[in-house]
Amino acid sequence: MGFLFSAFKQTREVNSLDWDGKMEFWCPLIVNTCRQRSVVSISLGELNDIFRRKGTSPLGLGTILQDMIRRGKLQKESEFAANVDAGWISWGVGLLLVKPLKWTLSTILGSNRVPLEETYVMIDLVKEKASELLQVYRSSSAAQRALVPFQELRAIAADICPDENTLCLALLQLQREKQVNVTLHDGEKIVKFTQHGQSRVSPVGDVDLGIYQLQKSEKLLEEKIEALANEAERCKEEARGLLHEGKKTQALRCLRAKKRTEKRSDSLYAQLDTIHGILEKIANSHTDRMVIQAYQTGVATLKQSLKDVTVEKAENLVDQIQELSEMQDEVNQTLSGFGLDSSGDDLDLEAELATLMQDSTPDGPSALPDVPDKPVFSNPARVQSEEGLVASLPAVPNTDLGITEEELEQELNRLTLLE
């Protein structure tokens, strides 16, 4: 531990093993620590507090941060934000968008020290966080809307972005990847994400802002209607209680207030229905626009495919095909009518066939050998042995087997049924 907490040599060439050993230990540890804390930026002062042991902080953390900056693993938070969009400067809460004076002076004087308060962004971690944020948005109910208020997005991403600074950095990375677009509208921060089927986000236009205003009004009306419904129910219960107490006049007053609340609620319902109708027509118009675009693409493709095709060319091709078909028929007829006079050959073939038939007819009985009138066994000893074998066999039984004709008939019928 004393070796790891000690300072680096002035240069790596002095002791490369010492230098590389500390780097291989501290760099992954810093990254994993930030990942466990769900943060994507860190400063030297925070690292000193995190890794403080027995009142002592590692002496080489500044050198480690410089090495990570040189290898592109770290970038100053101000430079990271400025490289994406200057518009973020106006509302990037929590971002150090102005270089600290100490850093500027140390750069001018040629010092390589890292200021304690300078915040650095870990490039790999901010990319991971940006991907998580995009997945959380697409799995939420807000994915049905093109524009999302920044405060609502904070609530959606509370589990993966513990503070506003981390959320801003993740959005900056998504904006760098062309996945989000951020704008200010009437002092409100609005975020637009890419929708399904889009490779990159489109700029926030007047149509998007108009739909956002309608959706915002819709949500506001729903909240007011719910509040009026609760108010009407409260007036009703209060009137019931006053009636039980015998305070009829006050109960009537509560009922009048209930009627007025219900009337206001009905009016808001009508306005809400109008907004619903407008939003539905806008959604249908988007569908119609997609269909029209598909038609236009189909017509353009069809025109391109029929670019060199005309009616005259088609008729010319049909005439040529007809002429070639007629020519082929004439050729086939000519070839089928062409033949040699083969009547003489046919007569010769008939005569040869008659000769073959005569040769195949037998003239008399076949010359077969006579039937022998003596035993076929020519060896007397073999004949005697075979006679002895036959004599040794048991006699053929001539007794009754004990089976009657009726039993045989029954067995035959059973076999017939089985078949």
From TrEMBL:
Location in the cell: Cytoplasm; Nucleus envelope
Keyword 4Fe-4S: no
Parts forming coiled coils: 211-245, 307-334
One GO CC term, this protein: cytoplasmic side of plasma membrane
Domain CHMP7 winged helix: 126-193
InterPro entries cross-referenced by the UniProt entry: CHMP7_WHD, Snf7_fam
Annotated keywords: Coiled coil, Cytoplasm, Nucleus, Protein transport, Transport
GO biological process, one term: late endosome to vacuole transport via multivesicular body sorting pathway
Highest taxon above the source species: Eukaryota
Gene3D superfamilies: ESAT-6-like
Presence of the UniProt keyword Protein transport in the record: yes
Family annotation (Pfam families): Snf7 (PF03357), WHD_CHMP7 (PF25239), WHD_CHMP7_1st (PF25880)
Recorded family membership: Belongs to the SNF7 family.
Protein name per its UniProtKB record: Charged multivesicular body protein 7
Organism expressing this protein natively: Polypterus senegalus (Senegal bichir)
Lineage summary: Eukaryota, Metazoa, Chordata, Craniata, Vertebrata
This protein's encoding gene: Chmp7
